[in-house]
Each structure stands twice: as C-alpha cells, then as structure tokens.
Amino acid sequence: MKVQQSLLKFVTLTNWVLFFVASISGIIAASPHFARGIIFGGLIVTINFHLLYRTLRKALAPPYLSSHNIVLAKYYARFIVSGFIMFLLISGHYVHPLGLIVGLSIVVASIILATMLELKKLIFKEAI
Prior knowledge:
Helix 1 (about 1-30) packs antiparallel against helix 2, helix 1 (about 1-30) crosses helix 5 (about 105-125) and helix 2 (about 30-60) runs parallel beside helix 4 (about 95-105). The protein has helices at about 1-30, 30-60, 70-90, 95-105, 105-125. The chain is mainly α. The protein has one domain. The chain contains five helices and no strands.
C-alpha cells in the first residue's frame, strides 16, 4: 500500500508541475491561442484526475462501499461534461486543437514518468 500511495502522490504532484511548466512554456514560446489550449487542456485533465481519485477513494472506503454502477455513472458524467467543454472551446475558436491535445497529455506524461522511475528502481534494485 505504501508504494501505491507514493506513486499517487508523485503523479499528483507531477501533474501540477508539468501543467505549470507546459503552460509557462506555451505562454513564452507559442501563440496565445495555442497557449490557451495547453492551459485549458491541462486544467480539464488534471481536475478530472483529481475528481476520479476522490470518487474512487470514497467508493472504496470500507464503511461506505459503493456500487460500481455509481462509479461508472460519475465517470461517464465527467467524460460527457469534459467533451462538451472541449467542443465549446474548439468550436468557439478559443483554443488551438493541438494546444488542447498537448494540455490533455499532461496526466499521461506524468503517469509514464512515474512508470519509468519505478522501472528504474526495480532494475537497479535487482542489479545490486
């Protein structure tokens, strides 16, 4: 359980660090349209990640075990709301679609980074 908690903390912290780095890099190096895409995409995916964590934590807590149908309903509701927000952002020409994709990749990048670090720990642990 300790490994899972440390991985979750790492991914959560890395989400916000990557979000700020990508946002500031977008503001400095890209057009405002593209930078807004990175910012909005990063906010959407990071907030969804935190809401999913909160939903799963509450659903799997021993005194209040929830039905998997409730968890799935909340997941799909968040998915639909996120899709609608992205539709509004792209159709209203508020963001650049590629910037939005970059922003939406922040959580994936942090999970990949956490996986690579854990694999490195395992490989070097076995080598010693």
